[in-house]
Design a protein that fits this description.
Chain A is mainly β and about 110 residues long. Chain A contains no helices and eleven strands. Classes of the chains: A mainly beta (about 110), B mainly beta (about 120).
Chain lengths: ~110, ~120
């Protein structure tokens, strides 16, 4: 059974720092890995999707990497801003389904 | 933003009553999902649909049923609500492209359900 773990559960950083969020999974037989952002009381917003054949994907200040063999993905956020404060979730894609980690709650202090 | 709406957005009901939540999409995506989100458990898949009248169970399907009679609507029914079903329920949509970008899931705003 696929299990997805995100460490740390919470992170507080000063504005301007570069930071890395971690995601690990137990079964490397995946179709893709997706990163989402969730603001308090809101739904999830898709940030990036990395296909199983890719090593990384970039969108603006965000860069996500995938190492299937070690069961790891990282989300790199450059030059963090207070508006980046949210919970970040990774999800591993099976055939038409996602298994989610429990998220990392990020707080960026001005 | 993907065109996904959920109704109602908030509901308070009593134990033992039936409850139906509705998800409506305007994107014509084939796949639709129902998740619940609880502190300490994260997001868990309840049921999903891969086409009209085609549905399958997720991780936490006991006590829930679904129906999809049209591409755009996916209904989640709690036959007899219990306090353990108090949660925030999210609907999501996607396509299936074998792992490619079209697999991206788009989420609705959620329904907060309280069962007293």
């Amino acid at each position: 059974k696929q299990e997805v773990t995100q460490i740390p559960a919470a992170l507080s950083v000063p504005e301007g720092e570069n930071l890395v969020l971690n995601c690990s999974f137990t079964d490397s037989a995946i179709y893709n890995l997706q990163w989402f952002r969730q603001d308090p009381g809101k739904g999830l917003t898709s940030l990036l999707l990395i296909q199983s054949s890719q090593r990384e994907q970039t969108s603006g200040r965000l860069n996500a990497s995938l190492d299937k063999s070690s069961g790891r993905s990282t989300l790199y956020i450059a030059a963090s801003q207070p508006g980046d404060s949210a919970t970040y979730l990774c999800a591993v894609g099976g055939r038409g389904k996602l298994i989610f980690g429990q998220g990392t709650e990020l707080s960026v202090k001005p | 933003d993907a065109g996904i709406t959920q109704s109602p957005r908030h509901k308070v009901t009593e134990t033992g009553t039936p409850v139906t939540l509705r998800c409506h999409q305007t994107e014509n995506h084939r796949y639709m999902y129902w998740y619940r989100q609880d502190p300490g458990h994260g997001l868990r898949l309840i049921h999903y649909s891969y086409g009209v009248k085609d549905t399958d169970k997720g991780e936490v399907s006991d006590g829930y049923s679904v129906s999809r009679s049209k591409t755009e609507d996916f209904l989640l029914t709690l036959e007899s609500a219990t306090s353990s079903q108090t949660s925030v329920y999210f609907c999501a949509i996607s396509e299936w492209s074998g792992g490619r970008v079209a697999d991206t899931q788009y989420f609705g705003p959620g329904t907060r359900l309280t069962v007293l």
